[in-house]
Design brief:
The chain is 40% helix and 14% strand. By secondary structure, the protein is α/β, with parallel strands linked by helices. Helix 4 runs parallel beside helix 5.
């Protein structure tokens, strides 16, 4: 088959108990897909996502996933694929982590952040891709990275390194799996109003951000819309790309640099 023959029916979205993951699961259900939902610490949130998927007339399967337990990631994805009856779209959304000055980061903290954001993503993407290759129907692999996939941030050495690595992994996957009609892309959010940032979606409408051209944070639904496009037949010729969804934040580099009035940015 070719990528323009792709017709998605089943998706898995990791960390879909809230925020971007939850919005993505619902957007894919709106697009006609059954959805596998994973959670780490918020089972109730995952069940709310599942309820939303079912309200849209689609099947939802829910399971717990610890992306840092690398021996369990692939078996967990395998189980979800079996329960769904296959997989066409895999969205690696699990991620996060604390920061701190580079000189103060301990090895254990480094490993925890890299394991969550890069190692776990590798294991999940690989497990999903193996199912797609065996099925021979093509597929969509999508990783939620960050604007820090391409731009650094003071006080976030491990997170930035992991997101850089995940972006490179997606590019390599795109090269290798194109022959199987599987596309691989990244979506790189800027500041998004999610529980991870102590905000809800509606906070984006009442929060002013002078340093962002659009003047506000983004909504989870705005990230989900781009992911849904990349998961769709319409994205048949898009692979190996990173889609920045940040309200123009990354375009402000020189302007931000020339308009800083003190050294407070050095503190993260």
């Amino acid at each position: 088959m070719d990528t323009f023959d792709f017709a998605p029916h089943r998706a898995i979205v990791t960390a879909s108990d809230s925020g971007i993951g939850q919005a993505t699961a619902l957007a894919l259900a709106d697009a006609g897909m059954d959805v596998g939902i994973t959670w780490h610490s918020d089972e109730a949130g995952a069940q709310r996502t599942a309820d939303g998927v079912r309200e849209r007339g689609r099947n939802a399967e829910v399971t717990r996933l610890d992306a840092t337990d690398l021996e369990r990631v692939a078996p967990t994805i395998d189980d979800l694929v079996e329960r769904l009856g296959g997989i066409d779209v895999f969205v690696n959304n699990a991620g996060g982590g604390s920061g701190g000055p580079f000189l103060d980061v301990g090895v254990d903290d480094w490993r925890q952040v890299v394991s969550l954001n890069l190692d776990g993503a590798f294991a999940g993407l690989q497990a999903a891709a193996r199912h797609m290759v065996r099925a021979g129907r093509g597929g969509r692999l999508i990783a939620v990275t960050s604007v820090h996939e391409t731009q650094p941030r003071v006080g976030s050495a491990a997170y930035v390194a992991a997101k850089h690595g995940l972006g490179g992994l997606i590019e390599t996957i795109a090269q290798e799996l194109g022959q199987h009609s599987i596309t691989a892309n990244a979506v790189a959010p800027g500041e998004i109003s999610t529980p991870l940032n102590d905000q809800e979606s509606e906070d984006a409408e009442r929060t002013h951000r002078p340093g962002i051209p659009l003047g506000r944070p983004g909504k989870p639904e705005e990230i989900a819309a781009v992911i849904a496009f990349l998961a769709s037949p319409a994205a048949s010729y898009v692979t190996g790309a990173s889609w920045t969804v940040d309200g123009g934040m990354l375009q402000m580099g020189p302007q931000a640099g020339s308009h800083l009035t003190d050294d407070s940015w050095r503190e993260g």
